[in-house]
Amino acid sequence: MDKQVNKVVLAYSGGLDTSVILKWLIETYHCEVVAFSADIGQGEELDHLDEKAKHTGATSVYIDDLREEFVKDYVFPAFRANAIYEGQYLLGTSLARPLIAKRQMEIAAMEGADAVSHGATGKGNDQVRFELTYKALAPHLKVIAPWRTWDIRSREQAIEYAKAHGIPLRDISKANIYSRDWNIWHMSHEGGELENTWNRPNEEMYLLTNSPQEAPDEEVEVVIDFEHGIPIAVNGTRMDPLPLLNELNRVGAEHGVGRTDLVETRLVGMKSRGVYETPGGTILFRALRELEMITLDFDTLAMKNTMALKYADIVYAGKWFTHFRESMDAYMATAAKYMTGSVRLVLYKGNVMIVGRSSEYSLYLEDLASFGESAYDHQDATGFINLYGLATGVQAMVHNRDRSAKGPAREMRAMAGFSEK
Amino acid sequence: MDKQVNKVVLAYSGGLDTSVILKWLIETYHCEVVAFSADIGQGEELDHLDEKAKHTGATSVYIDDLREEFVKDYVFPAFRANAIYEGQYLLGTSLARPLIAKRQMEIAAMEGADAVSHGATGKGNDQVRFELTYKALAPHLKVIAPWRTWDIRSREQAIEYAKAHGIPLRDISKANIYSRDWNIWHMSHEGGELENTWNRPNEEMYLLTNSPQEAPDEEVEVVIDFEHGIPIAVNGTRMDPLPLLNELNRVGAEHGVGRTDLVETRLVGMKSRGVYETPGGTILFRALRELEMITLDFDTLAMKNTMALKYADIVYAGKWFTHFRESMDAYMATAAKYMTGSVRLVLYKGNVMIVGRSSEYSLYLEDLASFGESAYDHQDATGFINLYGLATGVQAMVHNRDRSAKGPAREMRAMAGFSEK
Amino acid sequence: MDKQVNKVVLAYSGGLDTSVILKWLIETYHCEVVAFSADIGQGEELDHLDEKAKHTGATSVYIDDLREEFVKDYVFPAFRANAIYEGQYLLGTSLARPLIAKRQMEIAAMEGADAVSHGATGKGNDQVRFELTYKALAPHLKVIAPWRTWDIRSREQAIEYAKAHGIPLRDISKANIYSRDWNIWHMSHEGGELENTWNRPNEEMYLLTNSPQEAPDEEVEVVIDFEHGIPIAVNGTRMDPLPLLNELNRVGAEHGVGRTDLVETRLVGMKSRGVYETPGGTILFRALRELEMITLDFDTLAMKNTMALKYADIVYAGKWFTHFRESMDAYMATAAKYMTGSVRLVLYKGNVMIVGRSSEYSLYLEDLASFGESAYDHQDATGFINLYGLATGVQAMVHNRDRSAKGPAREMRAMAGFSEK
Amino acid sequence: MDKQVNKVVLAYSGGLDTSVILKWLIETYHCEVVAFSADIGQGEELDHLDEKAKHTGATSVYIDDLREEFVKDYVFPAFRANAIYEGQYLLGTSLARPLIAKRQMEIAAMEGADAVSHGATGKGNDQVRFELTYKALAPHLKVIAPWRTWDIRSREQAIEYAKAHGIPLRDISKANIYSRDWNIWHMSHEGGELENTWNRPNEEMYLLTNSPQEAPDEEVEVVIDFEHGIPIAVNGTRMDPLPLLNELNRVGAEHGVGRTDLVETRLVGMKSRGVYETPGGTILFRALRELEMITLDFDTLAMKNTMALKYADIVYAGKWFTHFRESMDAYMATAAKYMTGSVRLVLYKGNVMIVGRSSEYSLYLEDLASFGESAYDHQDATGFINLYGLATGVQAMVHNRDRSAKGPAREMRAMAGFSEK
Known about the structure:
The structure is a homotetramer. By secondary structure, chain A is α/β, with parallel strands linked by helices. Chain A folds into 3 domains: 7-68 and 92-177, HUPs (Rossmann fold), CATH 3.40.50; 182-367, Argininosuccinate synthetase, chain A, domain 2, CATH 3.90.1260.10; 377-415, no CATH class. Chain A is 42% helix and 19% strand. Chain A has 15 helices and 14 strands. Chain A has a 5-stranded parallel sheet with strand order 3-2-1-4-5, with helices on both faces. In chain A, strands 10-9-8-13-14 form a 5-stranded antiparallel sheet. Chain A has a 4-stranded antiparallel sheet with strand order 6-7-12-11, with no helix packed on it. Chains in contact: A-B, A-C, A-D, B-C, B-D, C-D. At the A-B interface, helix 4, helix 5, helix 6, strand 11 and strand 12 of A face helix 4, helix 5, helix 6, strand 11 and strand 12 of B.
């Protein structure tokens, strides 16, 4: 281990792990430690963090409100791209890590630090996301990942270390059943009874949302307006990204919306089980899908759907600050050019029900689709089908030359008395 | 119009359109007409169809129960492929058409008919699905699509024609607000107030499912067992495909599950709005997704997801009887080799909540993913991240040679006092 | 047939077909005809076209040099996207049609015409390309496609019509074995002996390029410089798009480069056989591929390769003026941000041999890849492989629980004396 | 380092590296070493390997001829899948590694060995391919990768070690400019002047093929027959896989065919430059592409092309023994069902020129594609284009509602005097 470290910027939460790390860095490297906490909407006490960090030994402390930047520059672009990992996970944690790490790099530059550190474990995704951002933005900095290098192997040993070093534990020593991550986009839960994939999560685990059962018996209708694939108003009231998401979180959580229980494939090769609460995000994703359906042609949408899979993969993998993500965003931004309009939906006991959508760029034309008279010429369909089906017909004919072939076409020809060539 | 037609097999439902067509074929071609009705679970009176068809002039009548074949050979393979058109439509109508058309071809062969006819309009998808199947299986038969060729332009004119020709109308002349299609997999609704995409569907439109509001206040838990991606048991009771789907339809419908309101892109280029009720199908798709998550590796799943988009497209397009669909099914069948296991879910007022999953082939290993001690070596992560992130680091370095570039990396290097080459 | 046409703009080449069409339009619609010819580098006499068109009855004649616009705004963007249809066809004709049709629309607007016409047949791709552009840019104009509507069924009948109507035939009546299309990007050949896919093309068919056999016995080295994926210099001499392509065509044709003999899938469902000569284009595509390899990361390149397939499909299909193509170009332009550098290649008797490439943004770092000492830590590879291969190992273990499974893993475990659970 | 190793099976070539490793394993682990060499067509002396290995200390020696298995079970299936890494590399080395590693596992089982070892370095792809195969087939075996763990850092130090330990060096100590890999499918070259990507390879580097310049002045015609995508005959002579490939290698090498100079993206994140000689493989790939063009419909081919990219990626990555590769092969085998026929090509001084192709399943029908009279109804094209272009027209109309939009459509409408709403 290279001991030549003078000043470290630590991504600090005030919890057990990063408190122990703060002290351990000082003890191990005899260096200064700058503690940095980002407010990304985790809704927890940040008030006493400063004091706590200093008490544990931090030279200086940064507590930065990054909520608006998070929603505007990270969450909404990924949302516009329809990025959902493995079809279910809305990437709440994945999107926050690059922003936190980027701010950490900025502080390192301002402070003249020569190293950065984080509290992510050696089995998870977050270590990768932190460190890929470090590599992308400041590859010259030394990275210290204590959970991969120190001798502490368990929560119990960490508590022991904390006690031995006089770290103020307050309530952080008490048993945490779950490993959680919280920001304005979502809250995740892992561990506890979830580790057996057959177990149903305990209702007490959920902290953000009502259960569908507890939700009000009355439905509520919500109308969301979008401009170029970005939400801009709720129920007719124009809002900035942060308050808009807050409002949708509020109404979604009340109505039991946004719980997802899934098994995902981690970056380091293993499967893990997680439960997510993403109330506002779930509403937004359902609405966007509808808006896409009336404003995008088949091809643009099909490519967007294909690219969305890859976009989600790389965000999950911590590759936010890459030329590839920028290139995909160029497609997404152009594809979203006409994704302007309104979606009307109803929330009721966990359901998000689409009930209407409109757009000045709607490709749905009532008179074209309706069953009455219109300019559409039914005769055209004959020519269309003949050519659209030409290859199918040619193939059928050609493949039936195969005498050994079985199947309906052959049987049918036999029944019809056709002699095979 | 070539008048040389001796015997036509008509896909006949007993409704207004195909009743008029039956008569019109006789009048126009002076030919025999064989009426054929498939029971694919539409749950309507088929009892008097025989009599009715004969009364309208049919030479002979076939009423065939294809329900088991439909579920086993069409619905379940497409389901295993995770085929969902444009992310939402479970392909209920699309899957039925090739089967109906195939049986029609078989009857044509048995009856020595030289033509087939269907009642699909010139603006919809079904004409394409019928006729592509005809081309694939019996390209020698003449195809008659009256809605594209006759002079009848509206429902009113069709009723007039029926009255003028003594076709028994019974209740079919009464106003149908909606255009519907029903089989054991789903019921679809188009037309009426749906033609304005902003309108919320009237509750009276729904015929299969309770609304979430009407559904019982008590949740119900359902466990579904799968073998190679095909459902084989519900709540521990092994069932054949048809009763299994019936059972899931029953419980799903009761609990308000499976309503979807969407706008889709039709084959003939226009957008159309449809509402679908697919209670059992919706439950099955949610369950399958979960089973995939624990039994498929990332790559196999990612390709399956990509292929599923294409699979849905071609089923929607009526290209069931193609070499391409067979080739994709070969992938799907092999990919499903280990998709054996159980999924536990809860139905409650419209929600399908996943609460557990298990498989003898589960790739989720509790001790690998848990946060305690295990065989997993945390140190490996350092090497992994270094190489996994190598390209990102190299790119960052190389791209920053661009003096005109803006962005965090450059600013950071500037802040850190790096002089640019 | 709606006879209400006052003025038609005809895409006119002066050949047999469009000469007959010019006259036929006048006879059939009693309308004015504006003849329009685009110079897109077909290298044929355009000198007497004006006179010829007027003699045949044209009210006015436009002969526009679109070569620069063609190369700059159509060919090079598609080239940057690596658009190759079905892996082989460089889209020479496909790219020209939208430009010609767009100019035709502009002339229609200037002339106040109410219809447009083209000479493409009813079996080919070009009719689709012309008419999709018309629909995209001026859907209000009437489209007249004589080959699909008139009674002339063959070349012989067309010549008869020409003679009967006093159309000056000069040399256009003499037998044309091949159907050809020529512009600055390529020349295509269809028909004649090519219609039997087993036949080797006659050497006389080729008009642009030397055969490899005829090409000089001395190789030549060519260096091409690119900026953001667009070629800007040859052998160190900066050139505008048009002269640059001319120069590469010259040297490529001399050295026997760019002949392709293929079977392709037409839009209207049939296969057709074509032979293409694309000397400069072939050189450029080989060079671009190399430049991509040193300047693009794996992910950006993989997505670009995937998108290139789709880009080629829609250009082939005449969907140039679409939101989808614009969206893909947004990706392509951003992906090409660092595609700046030089490629060194050797031309010799039909071969394009890559022999060198360099870029200020090259991701190839000599000291990283070399086999000597470097900063790369070999130990990292152990961790990388352990995690990169973790899923493979887990799967192998889990899948071997399948008692019925066969395969090397199972046999190996058996040989190794492992008892199966 | 865990010293508990009793018997190691070493993938042994008799070269400097594996000779040193053999001795080093014995010295380090005090274990038995079984030396294993596979004959995969590298065409080098395997005669004295036995003696040499024993002299260096091997307990026993296996020299197995795997050439037929290699071609039949590895090369040809990957070929049928059209697997080409990053568009250029035919995967010669990538395909050999899993076979060698599998045989190594079998020997380990037979010999009761508890470890395996290979001589791949810590910067290359081969270590990953060897070890992923180990993980897939025998995860219980210990893996020893000396280049990542020992103190030897360079070729010079390895020679020193050899001399110090009395390892017979013969000619292996003499300077090797290039790092090479050779088997029946290809020979690769890295290092030397290639490390500067701008340098043209020296002609002396090439060992398998004539240069185009040296190749005969007379062309030669070759006809290859395929059955289900696998080559079965050359010039009408039916051959087994191994002699067939040998014959194509012979004629290809003579005519200067199959040299490729490229930069590729390694698994461990860096770019590397390599030159490949793949004479027979290059001929086969060109021929297969042509066969696909006449026997596969557009959709099956498009999916095959998409999947081929992924197939190549995972073969390159050493993931041969995976459920994913098996699943893709299921698609490939079914897609190849009708890929039976003949391709006619001409070899001349480095060129592989396709000149003809035929198949009993050819989808090219001469009378459909020809320009004379036929059953194809030109009128159908009108209906086809109207519906095929419907979405384009609707979009154009809708998007032009955008008052701020610029572009040809808007300008055109303006020119035409349309007033905008």
